[in-house]
Specification:
The structure holds 2 protein chains of 2 kinds. The mean pLDDT of chain A is 97. By secondary structure, chain A is of the alpha+beta class. Chain A has 13 helices and 18 strands. Chain A is globular and about 65 Å long. Chain B has 4 domains: 94 residues, Uridine Diphospho-n-acetylenolpyruvylglucosamine Reductase, domain 2 (2-Layer Sandwich); 118 residues, Uridine Diphospho-n-acetylenolpyruvylglucosamine Reductase, domain 3, CATH 3.30.465; 107 residues, Alpha-Beta Plaits, CATH 3.30.70; 74 residues, Alpha-Beta Plaits, CATH 3.30.70. In chain B, 35% of the residues lie in helices and 20% in strands. In chain B, α9 runs antiparallel to α14 and α12 packs across α13. The model of chain B has no long low-confidence stretch (mean pLDDT 94). Classes of the chains: A alpha+beta, B alpha+beta. At the A-B interface, β8, α6, β10, α7 and α8 of A face β9, α8, α9, α11 and α17 of B. Chain A: This is Glycolate oxidase FAD binding subunit.
């Protein structure tokens, strides 16, 4: 595969223009750690953003950081850590899942809307992304959003680009809102709860005023021999201590809990974030399902009647991770049928095939199929950015 | 005086008025269709009252199906549509035109479903912001974005403008709190975007729709996040000798890793106006005031406020007045939230809505006051200091055309100042008709064309709120 690695935004625009003139699609790549995400791209030339590096603005007292798209995430996180700040959406690292090397980049986080367990309380990457510069498929350099928290000037193309997986533009620079790094954290673990009861406990905690920042449930055998239900509290030490006591009282009807050692808890949350419990076997398909938390256990029950799967719940049950054999359609029909059955005929959420062999992802809908009018809008939007289909063609849907 | 140009009405549409009204009458109940001139006049403007146009007709559907049928019909007839919630837009986003039909959601005001376990509420889009919190208050939940107009404004308008409010520093604005919408496209097609779960499939169309100012469709229903109420919350008034000191204190608080639930700023004139109206106990002997609210358990609040007080002392704080009761808390917020109304008692004003990087606060405030003084006017400054969203209220006499022109000039200069400082033209009020012609100041033609092409993907004929947001010149199709 040919490769082009622009060093400046102008060079990136030139690369897109060249590709457009030759009608030769580009596969957009950052650190290359998430190449397995989405449908395989039909492109013979790779455009890497790895030459676009460097933090361009960091104002700790304004909670804002900007960097060029190819800046390694660890460089951003180191700069933030220096000022006791962080990307509050704790972006997931896909390297363990895909067995990839290299460094995730800030542009990749924006392009994929990559988030982690704190999404349930703090928000996703899209909630923190406030400004972008990108090159569209016409080779035009576009600025949208800015460096201020509140901005409703014109259409919010920032949100549209975030999670568009490089299909609308080559992101060249991203500006994120950041937050103070929590001074301390505590994780409360309940053992032995069945799924339904665990999700009820998670909902009770998240419905309390205790500001639970992450909440997950792992069935027996994934992290511990018994089922494990986890609740994370963050903030100043005294506040965390006080809320931990209150959380124990809130959860008393379910099971008495145990506060985990901080290092162990930290590793556990990273593992949950990075899907480590389901990484093996490496040839199994991985699905990510977004649902209403209280309906998630029923969905899993219905699914298990059709297909063998291993699974766990994040986001208080609102996110289900599944591992299913990658044979046939990698469980696609079963997963989507169970989503409809759990809603008595109406789907209760949406499913994304996060890991599967290329030939499966080429034939199965990787992202949730869209209703006809939404698919038409999506195609028209794609055409408004990239009329010749130069950028990551087919990454999200056929032709998009 | 009319600094902002309206497009010329299309005479062929006006000539067909009776036919269009007859068509609409077949689709909705008689009390949902407003045609008499004196009744239409109630819809001739929004809260940007200096501008007004009487619409061709007004339709207030009761259901999504009616809304869909109305839009399909108007699309077939080639009639422009102006969407309207409660008409509280400060940027003229809901001001109609003579050849347009106003389609309002005021009669679509039912709460459809509350799901406490999953922390969501589904509502028709005409419900008011405050009534959403009201619907879930008994279970100690609330809906976070709290624009000052929350008693009147609808969630449809909040979604249209991506509204914020005082407590958005911690909880985010509308776009961070909407999970899904049922929306009617220009041709009457009903689409569902997102749903009662955190992340949606495909492109983030929901993120695009929020803040799109009625340009992409009309929202019929919305699924929103509701949050558990904090155990307690307490505002504190901090008085400073100067605006610069108050601004410096804000930066220091955030730099120290403290993000309170709200940090609101008022300058001397704003304090006087609001205190005179609300009797909130604001100190009158200071140059600027911060209202900082902390929330959590009483012990958590004590601890956070102690840290904030220590920082404020480094910035020559002269008054620290903590709310001692729910009544005092309500009074403090009443004063702040009624700033616009209270100012209206003193003079006519235009309310600006620029945003700046908070680090530029002292320079921007200084220059802003100069701009207004040079034009011989007065300004009261009220704003969300934590996120740099300024609301300068430029006072003038609406009966004096020369003074109105000066006020509009001041407003324009202030917004340009915000953009030059690295900020933007609007933080929560929207572009509407008011800032439409300033858009090229923030965006270059290529940036704007990309936005317009996206807009045209939804509405190729530019029928939805057509004279708003984008300059009338240089419009592009998909």
């Amino acid at each position: 595969m040919n490769s082009v690695t622009p060093k400046t935004e102008a060079e990136a625009a030139e690369a897109v223009n060249t590709a457009r003139a030759a009608r030769r699609p580009l596969g957009i790549e950052g650190g290359g750690t998430r190449a397995g995400l989405g449908r395989p791209v039909a492109a013979q030339t790779r455009l890497s953003t790895r030459g676009l590096t460097g933090i361009t603005l960091y104002e700790p007292s304004e909670l804002v950081i900007s960097a060029r798209a190819g800046t390694p995430l660890n460089e951003i996180e180191a700069a933030l850590k220096d000022k006791n700040q962080a990307l509050a959406f704790e972006p997931m690292d896909h390297r363990a899942l895909y067995g990839t090397q290299g460094e995730p980049t800030l542009g990749g986080i924006a392009a994929g809307n990559i988030s982690g367990p704190r999404r349930i309380s703090a928000g996703a990457a899209r909630d923190f992304l406030i400004g972008l510069r990108f090159v569209n498929g016409r080779g035009e350099i576009i600025k949208t959003g800015g460096r201020v928290m509140k901005n409703v000037t014109g259409l919010d193309l920032v949100k549209l680009l975030c999670g568009s997986h490089g299909t609308l533009g080559v992101i060249t620079e991203a500006t994120f809102k950041v937050l103070p790094h929590p001074a301390s954290a505590a994780t409360l673990a309940l053992y032995g709860l069945a799924d339904g009861k665990a999700v009820a406990a998670l909902c009770a905690a998240l419905g309390s005023p205790l500001f639970v920042s992450a909440a997950a449930h792992l069935p027996a055998g994934l992290a511990t021999p018994e089922p494990l239900t986890l609740f994370r509290l963050e903030g100043p030490q005294a506040s965390v201590d006080e809320r931990l006591s209150a959380l124990r009282r809130t959860l008393a009807p379910f099971e008495s809990g145990e506060a985990l050692a901080p290092d162990y808890a930290g590793a556990l949350w990273r593992a949950i974030r990075n899907i480590v419990p389901l990484v093996s076997p490496p040839d199994a398909a991985i699905w990510r399902i977004s649902v209403q938390p209280t309906r998630a256990p029923k969905f899993v029950d219905l699914l298990l009647k059709q297909v063998a799967a291993r699974y766990y719940y994040d986001w208080g049950g609102g996110l289900v991770w599944l591992s299913i054999a990658a044979t046939g359609d990698a469980g696609a029909a079963a997963v989507r049928a169970a989503l409809v059955q759990a809603g008595n005929g109406q789907t209760i959420g949406h499913a994304t095939l996060v890991r599967a062999p290329d030939d499966v992802r080429r034939t199965v809908d990787v992202f949730e199929p869209l209703a006809a009018p939404l698919l038409k809008l999506t195609k028209d939007i794609k055409a408004s950015f990239d009329p010749d289909g130069i950028l990551n063609p087919g990454r999200m849907y056929a032709g998009i | 005086m009319s600094g902002i140009q309206f497009p010329k009405p299309d005479p062929s549409i006006i000539a067909r008025r009776e036919t269009i009204i007859a068509g609409l009458a077949a689709l909705v109940a008689p009390d949902s269709l407003i045609t008499a001139e004196d009744e239409r006049r109630a819809f001739e403007t929004d809260a940007l009252t200096a501008y007004r146009r009487i619409p061709l007709a007004v339709v207030l559907p009761r259901t999504t199906e009616e809304l869909s049928a109305v839009l399909a019909f108007l699309h077939k007839e080639g009639v422009n549509v102006v969407a309207r919630g409660a008409g509280t837009s400060l940027a003229g986003g809901a001001i109609p035109q003579e050849d347009a039909v106003v389609v309002g959601v005021a009669k679509m005001a039912r709460v459809l479903d509350i799901d406490y376990a999953n922390r969501t509420i589904r509502v028709q889009s005409g419900v008011t912001n405050l009534s959403i919190s009201g619907a879930v208050a008994a279970e100690r939940f609330f809906y976070a974005p709290d624009p000052s107009s929350q008693l009147a404004c609808t969630i449809a308008g909040n979604i249209g403008m991506n509204s914020g409010g005082a407590h958005c520093l911690k909880y985010g604005v509308t776009t961070n709190n909407v999970l899904g919408v049922k929306m009617v496209l220009v041709d009457g097609t009903v689409v569902e975007i997102g749903g009662p779960y955190l992340d949606s499939a495909g492109l983030d169309l929901l993120g695009l729709v929020v803040g799109s100012e009625g340009q992409l469709g009309i929202v019929a229903e919305a699924t929103l996040r509701i949050l558990p109420m904090p155990e307690d919350a307490r505002p504190v008034l901090f008085g400073f000798p100067t605006s610069e000191a108050a601004g410096g204190c804000v930066a220091a608080i955030i730099g120290a890793g403290i993000v309170p639930v709200a940090i609101e700023f008022m300058d001397k004139l704003a304090i006087e106006i609001c205190e005179d109206f609300a009797h909130a106990g604001y100190p009158l002997d200071v140059g600027a005031l911060l209202i900082i609210e902390s929330e959590g358990s009483p012990a958590e609040i004590d601890a956070e406020l102690a840290r904030i007080v220590a920082i404020a002392k480094d910035y020559s704080v002269t008054t620290i007045k903590e709310s001692k009761s729910a009544i005092e808390t309500a009074a403090i917020w009443k004063g702040r939230k009624s700033a616009f109304g209270a100012t209206g008692r003193v003079a006519d004003y235009i309310c600006m809505d620029g945003v700046i990087p908070t680090g530029k606060l002292p320079q921007v405030l200084h220059r802003l006051n100069e701009i207004v003084a040079e034009l011989g006017l007065r300004v009261a400054n009220v704003f969300h200091a934590g996120d740099g969203n300024l609301h300068p209220l430029v006072l003038y006499n609406i009966n004096d055309p020369a003074e109105q022109a000066k006020a509009e000039k001041a407003g324009e200069e202030i917004l340009k100042l915000c953009v030059e400082a690295g900020g933007c033209l609007t933080g929560e009020h929207g572009v509407g008709i008011e800032k439409r012609d300033l858009m090229p100041f923030q965006f270059n033609p290529v940036d704007l064309q990309q936005q317009m092409r996206v807009r045209a993907a939804f509405d190729p004929g530019w029928r939805l709120n057509p004279a708003k947001v984008f300059p009338l010149e240089g419009r592009v199709a998909a």
